[in-house]
Amino acid sequence: xxxxxxxxxxxxSFKISLHFHMNVVxxxxxxxxxxxxxxxxKLLCFSRECCxx
Length: 53
Known about the structure:
Strand content: under 5%
Transmembrane segments: 20-38
Keywords: Membrane, Transmembrane, Transmembrane helix
């Protein structure tokens, strides 16, 4: 019975850590995507010189 509860705790913690890892990966991807978009907008702005208005 003790072994079963131990396995349950291990699997639960593994699921939680995996979920957390996936969230971190998604968050990192979102942040890098936002940075890429900002860089693209900056490049467009400088090429069109609309920011100097």
